[in-house]
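Reply to dn_fold:

You asked what the input looked like. This is it:
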Amino acid sequence: MRSRNSRQQLPIPFNIWTSSWFLSIRVYSWFHSRVDTLKFKLTLAYDGTQYEGWQVQKTGTGVQQKLEETLAKLFPSAPRLHSSSRTDTGVHALGMVAHVEIPRAECTMPSRKLVLALNAWLPEDIRVMTAARCRAEFHARFDATGKQYRYLVWNHTSMNPLLRHQAWHVPLALDLPAMRAAAKLFLGKHDFKSFAGTRDYEVESTVRTLTRCDVKRRGPSLTFIIEGDGFLYKMCRGIVGTLVQVGQGKFGAEEIKPMLARRDRRIAGMTAPPQGLVLWKVRYGKVPSTKRQSPKKLQAPNSRRKRLAEA
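and this is what came back:
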C-alpha cells in the first residue's frame, strides 16, 4: 500500500523540457514569462575530439552537457543553453554562439566575471571566449544570418603530430589550381543534397547559398574556407572531400555542376573526416521584424526547424 509521502509529485515545468524540443520551447517560454531574467550572448571555443558533438547525448558526452553542468553549479535554476549550430562528433569550434537566460536574482556578476566563473569550472578543452548582455528577443539560432567553417588538410608525406586531432592527413600531392576551379562552382544558390549526409527524416529543403568557397595554401597546410547562409548535415565535409578528390585527379572540376544537379549523394565525392573541421564564426545582421518572433511565441518555421541538423 502506497503511503501519502510516496505519492508521485507533479514535475516542475522548468524541468520537463527534455521530453521534446517543442515542449521545451513552451516550458522555456512559460518559465521566463514569469521570472525576471538577464540574457547573455556567449561565444564559445572547444576541441571536439573527446565529445560526441555539441548536443546533449543519450550515450556519450556532448559539449552542451558540460556547459549546462557548469551553469548549474553557478546558478540554482540550472539555465539551459541555446546554440547557433550543432557540430558533429570530433568537430571543433572557435566561434560557436549560444545564449542563456539567468534569473536576475541569481546573477549579480558582470559579464567579464561570468566568463571567468564559467571557465574556472569547465574542462580545459572548452572555453567561453566572451559573454555580453543582449536584447531580450535575441536568439542564437534564429537570428543567425550566416556561418563560416574552415577545414584544415595537412598535405605532406608525414603527418604533423601536433595537428593529428585538428587536420586531415592527405599524403599524396594535390592539384591546387584544379581544386580552386572546382571550389568556385559551389558559389551561389544550389541544391546541396549530393554533398550532405543522410538523416532518418526528410529535410524540407536542401537548397543553400554559399558566399565563399576558397582554398588557401601555406606550405603543407591547406585551409578550405566555406561560408554560407546555412549548412546541411555533413555538407562542409562532403564539399571538402570532393575537392580533395578533384586535387587527386579522381574527379574533374567540370563534374561539380552535374553532381549538384543529380541530387544524389552516391555520385559526389567522399566525406572528409571530422577532425579537420572548425566552426569559425557565426554572423548576425538585421532580421526583418516579420521574421523574428519573441521567445514567448518562439516557433520556428518548418524550413528553419529542419536546419537543426546542420553540420
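Confidence is low (pLDDT under 50) at residues 1-32, 287-310.
Hope that clears it up.
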